Every structure is written in structure tokens, then in C-alpha cells.
Amino acid sequence: MTLVLNAVAGALYLFAALAYFFQVIFAERKLGKIGGVFFMVAFGLHTGLLAAHFLSTSYPFILGEEDFLYLVSWVVAAIYVVLRRLYPLRGSGTLFATLTLVFFVLGEVLKERYQFGVTALTNPWALVHVLFMSLAFAVFTVSFLVGLTYLYEERKLKSRRPGRFLAWLPSLETMDGIHYKALTVGFVLLSIGILAGAALSKATAGKFFSDDPRQVAAIGTWALYAVFLNVRLKSGWRGRKGIILSILGFIGVLIAFLTLEHRVL
């Protein structure tokens, strides 16, 4: 039954992405509304499935790549649900629906391929570490997506050949604001995740930090985003420069977060 419901949720995310896409292609707002209905039904089903899975799994809940990716997928979807109520995102739904679907499908593809060390996860710090790193990864992925969209829109505007798709995107100012807020939230989540990871390392290995490349990448990423947020706050650094810097930081995010499971063994 769970497999069937997972397939239904994935199909609904796919239909939502297609409806949003054709909304832009044919400039038909009704398709956007249909996409919104598909997305919300999929999100509701996804929420129920995730909650049921975690309740049936019990502590420590996040046991493998499947759990990690399903959670990331859900967080991306939840971010879009919140953003679409706060901003006129219009055609951006296809980007968020596609990103949600990608993580959702990856969770199914990688099912039972790898499981975290259950012994290590019995430490209370482990769940905090994995949970907050997962949330940070999802938020940073959204900021990366918004950043790329910003650069695309800016380039099209400068070329004076905007095309049909550009008319459905939010303004540069709106995307810059979303990007900054996402990075701020992601930075806080990352900070908590790193501190919890240090506490876990102390409890299991006897020291807070090591020369593990993934741990170094996480701290380096934290430092890069700290510099960006500090410059943005003090100097009002906006637009292209800040987004390029954050995209470079996302390379560190990929190294640090996609190898998360190896740090909690």
C-alpha cells in the first residue's frame, strides 16, 4: 500500500511540474491553478507518508539515504508552499515541483541502498546533527535554484530578448530577497548541525573536530556563507556578486551534505 501511495505522490508532483511548465508555454493561468492543486494534494500525501514512516520507524527516525532524501524533498515542497503565499512566484512552480520530484525519486531509487550506522545514531546528538544538516541542505538547494534563476533572468534582461518564460518569473528584487532569506535560514540550520556534529564527534571519537575532508568542507562552507551574510548586512551587497559567491558555496554544500551518512557512522 505504501509503495502505491508513494507512486501516486510522485505522479502528482510530476503532473504539477508539467502543468506549471505548460502554463508558461501556453501562457494559460488555468494550468497554473491545476498545477497548484496537483502540488498541494501531492504535498499533503507526502506529509502523511513521511509522518507515518517516521512513526513506524521510531527513534532515531532518519536511518538511511531514503529517509534523508524524502525529508529533503518534503522540505523543498514546504518551502514552496510558504513562498507562494508570500510572493507572486507565478511560473516558478515548475522549478520547485521538478526539484521536489527529483529528490523524491532519488529517495525511491536509493531505497535500502545504504543505511546509517544505527549504533552511532543512538546518541542523542546524532539525530540533531542529521536532521539539521538535512534541513540546511534543502534550504541551500532552494537558494541555489533561486540564484541560478536570478542570473538567467538578469542575462535575458540585458540581452533585451526576454522571451516568454521571463514574463512568468518574479522580479530580480523579489528573487534577491528570497535568496538572501534562504541563505540566512540555511546558515542558522547549518550552524546548529555543525555544533551537533562536533558534540557527536566528541562523544564517539573523543574530539570535537578532525581533519575529515567532509567536516572541513562543512566548516569551510559555513565560513563562506558567514562572510557573504556579513558583507551583505554591512555593505548591502546585493545581486549578481553575492549570488555567484553563494553558488560557489553550494559546491561545498554538495561535498558536505551528500556525504552526510559517512560522518555519522
Defining key terms:
disordered C terminus, 10 helices, mainly alpha, 2 domains, 265 residues
Explain what you see.
With 265 residues, the protein is mostly helical. The protein has 2 domains: 1-114; 116-265, no CATH class. The chain has helices at residues 2-26, 29-57, 65-86, 93-109, 118-121, 124-159, 163-166, 172-205, 213-235, 240-257. The longest helix is centred in the middle third of the chain and has 36 residues, at 124-159. The chain is flat and about 60 Å long. The two termini are 32 Å apart.
What's this model, at a glance?
Helices cover 80% and strands 0% of the residues. It has 265 residues and is an all-alpha fold.
Number of strands: 0
Any idea what the shape is?
flat
Kindly report the average pLDDT value: 80
Total domain modules: 2
The termini sit apart by 32 Å
Which consecutive residue ranges, at least 5 long each, have pLDDT under 50? Answer: 113-119, 261-265
The total of helices stands at 10
Radius of gyration: 19 Å
Helix content: over 70%
N-to-C order of helices and strands: HHHHHHHHHH
What class do helices, strands and sheet pairing give? Answer: mainly alpha
Strand content: under 5%
Describe the largest sheet. Answer: none
Helix and strand arrangement:
Layout: H1 2-26, H2 29-57, H3 65-86, H4 93-109, H5 118-121, H6 124-159, H7 163-166, H8 172-205, H9 213-235, H10 240-257
